[in-house]
Amino acid sequence: MNIIDKSEYYLDYLDKSEELKELNKLIKKDGDTITQGYVPTVLEHNHFVICLKNKITHEIYSFIHFCIRENFFDIPKYIFVNYSYTFIKQRNKGLNKMLRLVLEDACKTNKIQAIISVPFKESNSRTIMDKLGYTNEKDDLYIKYIK
Questions:
Q1: 3-state DSSP call for residue 8?
Q2: pLDDT tens digits for 10-55?
Q3: Per-residue b/e over 39-65, b at no fewer than 16 CB within 10 Å?
């Protein structure tokens, strides 16, 4: 299944310290005063950053920082979304949804049973997760079980 169906984007991975430092600068420069998130500049062995970039300019439009964890109650292996962000000028294009669908596909391929996310209170992620079938378990802990 080709989740990234828009010809102007491509999926990429960020794992180099200089790329992650630059990403943090871009987040701060973007001016979103609601989240003010941060991505670590050195990723632990089970942490990853995936992003959608413009095919021509290679500009990052949206990204998700996540890690793979084990043993959360009855879930043997799951993805925990640490932080997701779409840059202001690129919002309302379904980019974060596309990235979350990429994660779902990766779960199916790698026998990962769920995706867990705890969005910022003011973020738009709740609406996206509701549309994708996540359940709000408690205290804004959203879980999507993967079949």
A1: coil
A2: 999 999 999 999 998 998 899 876 666 678 888 998 999 999 999 9
A3: beeebeeebbbbbbbeeeeeebbbbbb
Joined together, the tokens standing for residue 27 give 């987040």
**DSSP E strands, 15-73:** 47-54, 60-72
d(CA 38, CA 25): 9
**Residue given tokens 């309302």 in the structure block:** 92
Tokens of residue 73, six digits:
């109650």
Q: 10 Å Cβ neighbour count for 119?
A: 21
pLDDT band at 1 (very low <50, low <70, confident <90, very high): very low
Query: What's the CATH code, domain 9-145?
Result: 3.40.630.30
Cα 33 to its chain centre, rounded Å, is: 19
Using an 8 Å Cβ cutoff, are 116 and 141 in contact? yes
